[in-house]
Amino acid sequence: MHHQDIAVDVVVDIYTRILRIRRFEEEVARLFRQGQLPGFVHLYIGEEAVAAGVCAALTDEDTIISTHRGHGHVIAKGGDIKRMMAELFGKSTGYCKGKGGSMHIADFDIGMLGAIGIVGGGIPIAVGAGLSAWYTNSDRVSVCFFGDGAANEGSFHESLNLASALTLPVVFVCENNQYGEFTPAAKAMNIEHIADRAVGYGIPGVVANGVDALEMYRVASAAVRRARGGGGPTLIEAKTHRRGSHAEGEEAFLGGQTYRDEAETAAAQAKDPLLLLHTYVGENNILPQNQLEALDAQITIAVQEAVDAARNSPEPAVETVFEDLWL
Amino acid sequence: MHHQDIAVDVVVDIYTRILRIRRFEEEVARLFRQGQLPGFVHLYIGEEAVAAGVCAALTDEDTIISTHRGHGHVIAKGGDIKRMMAELFGKSTGYCKGKGGSMHIADFDIGMLGAIGIVGGGIPIAVGAGLSAWYTNSDRVSVCFFGDGAANEGSFHESLNLASALTLPVVFVCENNQYGEFTPAAKAMNIEHIADRAVGYGIPGVVANGVDALEMYRVASAAVRRARGGGGPTLIEAKTHRRGSHAEGEEAFLGGQTYRDEAETAAAQAKDPLLLLHTYVGENNILPQNQLEALDAQITIAVQEAVDAARNSPEPAVETVFEDLWL
Amino acid sequence: MPRKTYVAAIQEALAEEMRRDPRVFLIGEDVRIGVFPSTRGLHAEFGDKRVIDTPISELAVAGAGIGAAVTGLRPIVDLMFGTFLYLAFDQIANQAGAMRYMYGGQTKAPLVFMVQNGAGSSAGHHHSQAVHQFFMNMPQIKVILPSTPYDGKGLLKSAIRDDNPVLFLHSLALGGKRGDVPADEYLIPIGAADIKRAGNDVTICAVGPTVYTALSAAKTLAARGVEAEVIDLRSLSPWDKATVLESVAKTGRFVAVDESFPVCSAASEWCATVAEAAFHHLRAPVQRVANKDVPMPFSPVLEKAVLPSVADVIEAVNKTLV
Amino acid sequence: MPRKTYVAAIQEALAEEMRRDPRVFLIGEDVRIGVFPSTRGLHAEFGDKRVIDTPISELAVAGAGIGAAVTGLRPIVDLMFGTFLYLAFDQIANQAGAMRYMYGGQTKAPLVFMVQNGAGSSAGHHHSQAVHQFFMNMPQIKVILPSTPYDGKGLLKSAIRDDNPVLFLHSLALGGKRGDVPADEYLIPIGAADIKRAGNDVTICAVGPTVYTALSAAKTLAARGVEAEVIDLRSLSPWDKATVLESVAKTGRFVAVDESFPVCSAASEWCATVAEAAFHHLRAPVQRVANKDVPMPFSPVLEKAVLPSVADVIEAVNKTLV
Ligand SMILES: Cc1ncc(C[n+]2csc(CCOP(=O)(O)OP(=O)(O)O)c2C)c(N)n1
Ligand SMILES: Cc1ncc(C[n+]2csc(CCOP(=O)(O)OP(=O)(O)O)c2C)c(N)n1
Ligand SMILES: [Mg+2]
Ligand SMILES: [Mg+2]
């Protein structure tokens, strides 16, 4: 990795975002195994470089839209892990007062416009956020995260074309983790690079190493700059890997069926965005080892505090079923 | 045009298909102006080379799917103009017993699987017809006609990708007549050639002169051969022009608003597929003038007979409202 | 009072609200030229930015409206025909109606979806379906279907000012109808029915085009001495149960007239509600008049046979009188 | 008789029909591995050609099923969750249900759409909606929602043999339920209800998971001397009006229990029908028990509060007894 031009504080910032996602989700995995979390949980472990690199290229005013696999995006955009954890527990203190859950976390105050459980469902909404920036002559940029599987939904096509036709400030970030559930991307589409679909909309398409957070930062910064400058949308394809299951609890659920061979899984494990950036940070003397450890300890404590707080929070009152309705 | 390699009987066949479409629709235009046809009518005049060239490359077993602008496709595939005309009148003797109308004509006996009034709505169905050929190891090919506007629908994207992922024998024919209703294609998308979208699906994309029926025949033949041989789908973009309105009666309806300038309209009028092929047929001595005239007279009579028959046909009986339901 | 067409009243509502609030804009396929005349003339006044033509991409356009709404604008998304909402169904059901609730009240989605609803122009099944019942079922989508120019203008203005997603349905069949439209500004509250004809013998509930069917039937019935009360619901979600139940308390008879497929229809909902809440007032079984339960045929003769007719309404009323 | 789970019964129906008829095949997202276990094991037996994994493209997959059906095959299109049908809504409403009619009887579309319906696993709004009411509204789509392994197998086999489009809904919440499933082949006709409990005092109409809610309520009521008749409709379109009306003629009381948004719901339809056709038998107003009229929240506590409960059913029955 040759990223000496990226300022030290940016690197530290990105590293911190990745670490926070990782420690949060490792805890979520434990909690899920222990049967403490209701519903479905999809982890982002292995893909953190994408959210961290991209969100580091954004201002607080810029907005993002996320997917069923959304924890990483919320944290990378600056979300509060306490309110996130409480939401995963379905507690009244959660971001959505227990109404959203893992697949539907939002924080409008930090420009996190929501995770969407419908594959591809967030892409048009991100175009709308871009439309709104354009309409108000704001220099806000709208970023949309979605998967390789989502790139086969009609919403992907319509949205990229619409954003291009209206020259809207939208950055489309396709997280190609090689799978949609149990189906390899290679079986679901007959092309190597999803970024090549950009040709069909007359916008730039960029393939990026989604394991390398600093490369993601660089590529995203360029796309954001272009969008802010009125140049319209960009499609970024981040090649990445999910290290674990599609959804937690999958092994038991699949009853012994497998869909990835061991070599592939091992290769994916080897490409760890946290490890990669950790090495970079060490080799380039960006933070001394003790500060790295302190950071990790601090995050680990924060996650534990979030868990404790969530556990001790009240369930939502039944009457709240009738709140948050029509204004 | 250099099409000396295309056999004379094929040229005559294609010419006949074009002429039949033209004379049929000229009559339809007259009838609509006279207030004799209910509902909406979208004419294909100016685009006949596409349907005629493509359908001439098909066998009777091959299937097609059409659009709201479907008369040309039905006739080119060998449809019966009597039953078509009766359907346009909404009569019981029509193809659909008056239940379909101009936008919903089908003739399953000749592999015309239906016109679809929903823009892009036929594309997935054509993929299914291809799936069915593949499933039964038949060498049937499925052809889908749709417009430039339809190429911006999600169904276009999902269908081309699905057909490609499963390597199905489908030929996608995009009739780029430069407009979707009153919106120029150039405003609805940021690319010059819709055929370039093929890159996104890993299939061939071909730009063809949609005014030149023999070129359409040649390009379609290659795509059909490829599909039949197990090579999977092709996207053909036929550059063409509609000579008239989006829908008949438009001028009055638009109350003086225009959306094409006169130069453009004139240029479109100049590119007449019938005239072009007529000239070719004459220059290459394919049919003598008197036979051409006889053909025209014969078609004109057939169209008149169709009109007379339609006029004299009974309205559908009210009870037929409850027919053609669940089997 | 000036007399205006239904379409002109809609145009006026759009123009006035766009003048009033710079956050309001119109987006959809060919809204500049106006596939339906209701959006005509707006581009000339408001320009490219506020009258936005889009590609034919219903799902993305609907979603873009939602995204714009949750980031502070007030879009009017014109999707042309009711059936085209089927392509945007996910964005409306899963997102527009649910976002506020799903995210615990963090956001709001003040936008209007606008389409033509129902049949009547021999356009065949793909352009002739009534869709209001689907959106009545979805929580947190308001649904409106005015029958007169006056109601159309007042309700559309309320819809645009509403902080929630509203589906504004209009009817091509009514486009040319004329009626009084005050020159001064007025609003009609969403959720308030209007009694279009008073009567003591039977309550007929209708909406949009069926209001006229009901009124015609009422006229014929009056000649026979049967005085029907015709309630124009105007709003379908929320709908004005109180007015309907009060009327039934008086008449003891109820007929629902609704242009739509009959099963799980608005008429089913009205009848179920009346049967639940006004049972002890009912002197005869409630009656539904809706489309015949078949797809919509093209032929004018067949289309007419499928739609609710004046004769159907009279027959239904007769059944309540035995 | 062997006892099997609901899911195993569905697997069996699929396997038996695929063995019987080579035109039957399964297509959808991850049907090989089986996101829902109902499709598991089929790929091992039937191979790539008859168990087809697709990209995540609901609209195209649904349409491809239709295209295959009208050209001679008998596809089973698995679209996973009910809400994903929203993305395929156009193909189902505009094409599958209408093609035969629209083209004057020239074709038929023998295909089955298969999805999980409703809530119960704290999956949040996007994965927890019941959708049957939308498809009941559409003409010419059959709709099934079995509550037991026995019904599931017999109805799915009928659906696959039916020459019309059928929406087969199953329930994750019932996946593990066990019941008797005969070893010998049997079919259950679409459109026939099943009286799951006989009683003379009140008729409770339910479907899918709410059958158990109704049965629990009936047990509690029986302890109080109130004998409820619980009718499991099994088929929602067409539905067995005759059985329901006959029961109401006997009991004079009617409660509809339906897991779905309440407005324009199946429960609305059943109540409207009973109110229309059995008015003179009714001794008390019909009652609806459905979801609270809000989007589906994630929290198990809130989800439970939104869904129809045993207490809700008892309360509704009580209202019919006063
Ligand atoms: C419209 C829709 N179809 C199917 C699903 C079920 N589903 C949930 S996640 C998923 C895979 C998505 O793949 P991808 O977009 O690559 O995202 P990833 O899970 O790999 O992050 C599927 C099919 C869904 N939630 N929404
Ligand atoms: C889903 C849908 N959206 C919009 C329409 C209205 N409409 C009918 S034809 C048309 C234009 C289609 O353009 P194109 O695909 O280029 O076909 P052309 O009319 O030029 O042949 C539109 C928007 C429709 N019928 N269906
Ligand atoms: Mg993926
Ligand atoms: Mg066009």
Describe the structure.
The complex is a heterotetramer, with two copies of chain A (327 residues) and two copies of chain C (322 residues). Chain A has 327 residues and is of the alpha/beta class. Chain A has a single domain (8-300), classed as Rossmann fold (3-Layer(aba) Sandwich), CATH 3.40.50. Chain A has twelve helices and eight strands. A six-stranded parallel β-sheet of chain A has the order 2-1-3-4-8-7, with helices on both faces. Chain C has twelve helices and 14 strands. By secondary structure, chain C is of the alpha/beta class. The site of one magnesium ion has 6 residues of chain A, from β5. The site of one magnesium ion (MG) has 6 residues of chain A, from β5.
What topology emerges from the helices and strands here?
The complex is a heterotetramer, with 2 copies of chain A (327 residues) and 2 copies of chain C (322 residues).
Chain A: H1 8-33, H2 48-56, E1 63-66, H3 71-76, H4 81-88, E2 112-115, H5 123-135, E3 142-147, H6 154-165, E4 170-176, E5 179-180, E6 183-184, H7 185-188, E7 205-209, H8 213-228, E8 234-239, H9 250-254, H10 262-270, H11 273-283, H12 289-312
Parallel strand pairs in A: 1-2, 1-3, 3-4, 4-8, 7-8
Antiparallel strand pairs in A: 5-6
Helix pairs in contact in A: 1-2, 1-11, 1-12, 2-8, 4-12, 5-6
Chain C: E1 3-5, H1 6-20, E2 24-28, H2 42-50, E3 51-53, H3 58-70, E4 74-81, H4 89-96, H5 99-102, E5 112-116, H6 132-137, E6 142-144, H7 149-161, E7 166-170, E8 178-180, E9 194-197, E10 202-206, H8 210-223, E11 228-232, E12 235-237, H9 241-251, E13 254-257, H10 266-277, E14 287-289, H11 300-306, H12 310-321
Parallel strand pairs in C: 2-3, 2-4, 4-5, 5-7, 6-7, 10-11, 10-13, 13-14
Antiparallel strand pairs in C: 1-8, 6-12, 9-11
Helix pairs in contact in C: 1-2, 1-7, 3-4, 8-12, 9-10
The structure holds thiamine diphosphate (2 copies) and magnesium ion (MG) (2 copies).
One thiamine diphosphate sits between chains B (68-69, 117-119, 146-150, 175, 177, 179-181, 246) and C (29, 56, 58, 80, 84, 87).
